[in-house]
Specification:
Blueprint (H helix, E strand, L loop, with lengths): L1 H15 L4 E6 L2 E7 L4 E4 L2 E4 L1 H15 L7 E2 L5 E2 L4 E4 L1 H12 L5 E4 L2 E4 L5 H7 L2 E9 L5 H14 L3 E2 L4 E3 H5 L10 E6 L2 E6 L3 H14 L3 E4 L26 E3 L6 E8 L2 E8 L19 H5 L2
Parallel strand pairs: 1-8
Antiparallel strand pairs: 1-2, 3-4, 5-6, 7-9, 10-18, 11-17, 12-16, 13-14, 15-16, 17-18
């Protein structure tokens, strides 16, 4: 038994301590062990670097290290949650050390350096743009329809706390993402070619329609909007915005000189969108018809 353990230890030591190997670490943790022979070729006694293999290695290393920043946000209690700084591989510093190893002799070790990636939205910005409400809209739905209510809540959470910067175009589909079973969406009634049917993510169009009316109320520039093939009951006629992942999208542009904060909430039978900005924004609101607080017959039964 002792001899078997010794053999295993020797094999492990050989696997780690490869001749002329390079160990790449981050904060003392080993990320990769490679050899210069993996990245070089010889031509007439001249050492040549294989750029394709080297670039592929750098790309994989960066993917392994990369951490996206997290924007600051406002929680359900109205408190600001601090953002988090992300980081990525400092490729310039790494390549300098990597080339020194490639053209050197023997084994080597590189402790990689990283570059900070700061979030677009920090607590200071949020404090500046959460002051002035510039547009809002509320629609209503049957909270007893659990599947549809669930989808509305999920899409609302995905869109909440988004910040749209001046001249930036906001896309509903890009912000909310694909509505799939893997993301928690469930089957609920949708309109397909003018008829009601069941589909994953049913109810999402009430979220996009509520957003459209809040955006229109704020006087923002509507870039793209499509209506359903038949009237929907949760907004006045002609005030809907249909969306689907492989089809229509709802987009608008922030044509003001201040960032816009989107706050959304879908629960207990109501879907609300409120848009905020700074107190120095010069905006021109538009009048939009309100949604009826009474649940239409269609919503009480199926939708």
């Amino acid at each position: 038994m002792t001899q078997v353990c010794m053999i295993i230890l020797i094999l492990l030591a050989q696997a780690v301590d490869l001749p002329d190997s390079l160990e790449v670490t981050l904060q003392g943790e080993t990320l990769a062990i490679v050899n210069r022979d993996d990245f070089t070729n010889s031509l007439l006694d001249t050492l040549l670097i294989d750029r394709e293999k080297t670039d592929h290695f750098i790309e994989k290393l960066d993917q392994q290290i990369h951490r996206d920043p997290v924007n600051a946000m406002i929680n359900d209690d109205g408190e600001t949650v601090q953002g988090q700084v992300g980081y990525k591989l400092d490729q310039e510093a790494f390549m300098e050390d990597f080339y020194a190893y490639i053209f050197g002799n023997g084994s080597g070790k590189i402790e990689v350096s990283v570059l900070d990636i700061y979030p677009e939205v920090d607590s200071e910005l949020l404090a500046h743009i959460r002051v002035q409400p510039i547009g809002e809209y509320v629609t209503y739905y049957n909270s007893n329809n659990k599947n549809r209510s669930h989808n509305i809540s999920l899409a609302s959470e995905a869109m909440d706390n988004h910040v749209v910067f001046p001249n930036e175009t906001f896309s509903f589909n890009r912000a909310v993402g694909e509505r799939t079973l893997a993301k928690g969406y469930v089957s609920a009634p949708v309109i397909v070619k003018g008829e009601f049917s069941e589909g994953v993510g049913g109810g999402i169009c009430q979220v996009s329609s509520t957003l459209f009316n809040a955006v229109d109320h704020a006087g923002l520039k509507i870039v793209q909007r499509f209506s359903h093939s038949r009237r929907v009951p949760y907004v006045p006629p002609g005030r809907d915005a249909t969306v689907s992942w492989y089809g229509p999208d709802f987009t608008f542009q922030n044509n003001y000189n201040q960032p816009i904060l989107i706050r959304t909430k879908g629960s207990n039978g109501s879907m609300s969108v409120t848009l905020y900005s700074s107190d120095v924004i010069n905006y021109q609101p538009r009048k939009v018809p309100e949604a009826s607080p009474r649940l239409p017959k269609e919503i009480n039964s199926d939708l």
